[in-house]
Design a protein that fits this description.
- It comes from Thiohalobacter thiocyanaticus.
- Heterodimer of a catalytic subunit (MsrP) and a heme-binding subunit (MsrQ).
- It catalyses: L-methionyl-[protein] + a quinone + H2O = L-methionyl-(R)-S-oxide-[protein] + a quinol; L-methionyl-[protein] + a quinone + H2O = L-methionyl-(S)-S-oxide-[protein] + a quinol.
- The structure is a single chain.
- 19% of the residues lie in helices and 21% in strands.
- By secondary structure, it is an alpha+beta fold.
- The chain has a single domain, classed as Oxidoreductase, molybdopterin-binding domain (Sulfite Oxidase, Chain A, domain 2).
- Strand 12 and strand 13 form a beta hairpin.
- The protein is globular, with a radius of gyration of 18 Å.
- The chain binds the ligand Nc1nc2c(c(=O)[nH]1)N[C@H]1C(S)=C(S)[C@@H](COP(=O)(O)O)O[C@H]1N2 and molybdenum atom.
- Ligand MTE binds next to loops.
Length: 310
């Protein structure tokens, strides 16, 4: 499994788009042998595996180029600069990898990544990602619905929330040698948010295995929330009755709430959230309610005051 993206592995965006169009036209391949999709994804250096179908939940907006997606990152475990993760994340050992499942469920335990992935068909989800700092990207993720995994783990009736943790290992993650955040990085979702069909676990992007700086080998993607909810390099999933306290809530509870839904009408205390800069574009564009996924997710928050529950 490649741990580093070599220059020769990088697919130019134009080639990728062309290939994707071909796939849309001719693709009847998927459906067969999907259990092997992960193996083929891991082997794919340049080409998109033929059995990864594009989800209907995808946006058709222009993709952010691969080079931007993989060199302009937030991953504080590797430093706070946008270029630090691309420079330092090669230290992360992603194979073997396991995920520990704890708390309110019938199937706790430590699972090898392969066993987590085996029953799930991988699909492509092209989502907007909107960072709380005011920039956004459009990224073709490869993953599967988190809800499908949660069903396998059989949460109990007491499971009201899901908490996630990133690896804590200052040897591999030099940013953890400084107390920038209370490590390990923790995030959480309410159970209905976690079960929502838009919420995915991603293991790749641009048809290739996840680059370390983007959260290899497995990360969350919640497209209607600010980017920091989409926790990277997950090693623990815990079902809880109590609302999790995320690392960002601990660091600054007045600035980062539990919900963190993209909302142009509720400013961050230190800056406006009304507009955003799409990476690669010059003019800012308006930020959309729930990052443009209002139709799909507004119902989750009906009756809630989104100024109070920010
Ligand atoms: N473990 C961990 N996950 C993290 C972060 C982090 O610092 N550590 N940064 C978050 C933030 S602020 C953003 S905007 C997204 C960025 O994802 P990307 O670099 O793949 O675009 O990752 C999120 N997940
Ligand atoms: Mo972010």
């Amino acid at each position: 499994m490649p741990n580093r993206i070599l220059p020769s592995e990088i697919t130019p965006e134009s080639v990728y788009r062309q290939r994707r169009r071909l796939m849309q036209a001719g693709l009847a391949v998927f459906g067969a042998g999907l259990t092997g999709a992960w193996a083929r994804l891991a082997e794919a250096k340049v080409s998109l595996p033929g059995d990864i179908a594009r989800s209907r939940f995808s946006t058709d907006e222009d993709l952010t180029p691969y080079d931007d997606v993989t060199t302009y990152n937030n991953f504080y475990e590797f430093g706070t600069g946008k270029g630090d993760p691309a420079e330092n994340a090669h230290r992360l050992q992603t194979d073997p990898w396991s995920v520990t499942v704890e708390g309110e469920c019938a199937r706790p335990g430590t699972y090898a990544l392969e066993d987590i992935l085996k029953p799930h068909a991988l699909e492509e989800r092209i989502y907007r990602l909107r960072c709380v700092e005011g920039w956004s990207m459009v990224i073709p993720w490869v993953g599967f619905p988190l809800g499908d995994l949660i069903k396998r783990l059989e949460p109990t009736n007491n499971a009201k929330y899901v908490e996630f943790q990133t690896l804590h290992d200052p040897e591999q993650m030099p940013g953890q040698r400084r107390r920038i955040l209370d490590w390990p990085y923790v995030e959480g979702l309410r159970m209905d948010e976690a079960m929502h069909p838009l919420t995915i676990l991603a293991v790749g992007l641009y048809g290739k295995v996840m680059p370390n700086q983007n959260g290899a080998p497995i990360r969350l993607v919640v497209p209607w929330k600010y980017g920091y909810k989409s926790i990277k390099s997950i090693v623990k999933i815990r079902f809880k009755e109590q609302q999790p306290v995320s690392s960002w809530m601990k660091a600054a509870s007045k600035e980062y709430g539990f919900y963190s839904n993209v909302n142009p009408n509720v400013d961050h205390p230190r800056w406006s959230q009304a507009r955003e800069r799409r990476i690669g574009e010059f003019l800012k564009r308006p930020t959309l309610m729930f990052n443009g996924y209002e139709e799909e997710v507004a119902g989750l928050y009906r009756g809630m005051d989104l100024r109070e529950h920010f």
